[in-house]
Write a structure and sequence with these properties.
The chain has helices at 5-9, 79-86, 100-104, 157-172, 176-186; strands spanning 14-15, 39-44, 49-54, 60-63, 69-73, 91-95, 117-126, 130-137, 140-145, 149-151. It is an alpha+beta fold. It folds into 2 domains: 5-73; 79-178, SH3 type barrels (Roll), CATH 2.30.30. Bound molecules: zinc ion.
């Protein structure tokens, strides 16, 4: 069979969530929302196709024996749009990573440093880094890579959304900058 949405949707899947060895790994994360809170897993033995339904966002993907993954429900998320609409601004965040400048030039580490507490005003698209946050420290505004921070209030929805984004980014994000560079090399 062809591995596409229409064909896969014709298949029957048996739910195997709790069967040892067939559960989607705990370290696996949703391709849409980045959640690792678990999946409802189905398996079609004849075609050797797994189906994963995200308990957090409802997205459904299928994975075949070659490791190809397709969407049955949902689509790749526009993270800038999503976070702009779903985070509550402004909020306080802590910088959780050191910048290169801070590591290599400790005498002049730059305006934003590890463990700084900053105010996040909005998120914006970044060609190089995916999503950046517009932040305020003191009276000045800066931009900082969103995955370099976490919301101070760890009980907030903002915290959860940003952690989900980071998990998603670690696995699925492709830099538009690198893509453009590679296309450049290929002479596209
Ligand atoms: Zn999800």
């Amino acid at each position: 069979m062809d591995f596409n949405k229409e064909e896969v949707n014709k298949l029957e899947f048996s739910v195997i969530e709790n069967e040892e060895g067939k559960e989607k790994d705990d370290e696996d994360i949703c391709r849409v929302c980045g959640s690792n809170s678990g999946f409802i897993v189905g398996y079609n033995e004849k075609e050797q196709i797994y189906k994963y339904e995200c308990k957090n966002c409802g997205a459904i993907t299928a994975v075949n024996s070659d490791g190809e993954e397709i969407f049955l429900k949902g689509e790749e998320r526009d993270w800038v749009k999503y976070l702009s609409e779903n985070l509550e601004f402004p909020f306080m965040a802590e910088i959780t990573e050191m910048s290169d400048r801070e590591i290599f030039n400790p005498d002049d580490p730059g305006p934003i440093c590890y463990m700084d507490i900053v105010k996040v005003l909005e998120v914006i698209y970044s060609f190089k880094y995916g999503v950046e946050a517009v932040i305020k420290k003191g009276r000045k505004k800066y931009t900082q890579i969103l995955c370099f921070m976490e919301a101070v209030d760890s009980d907030s929805r903002n915290y959860v959304e940003i952690e989900n984004y980071k998990r998603w980014r670690d696995i699925y994000w492709k830099s538009d900058y690198l893509t453009a560079l590679i296309d450049g090399f290929k002479g596209k």
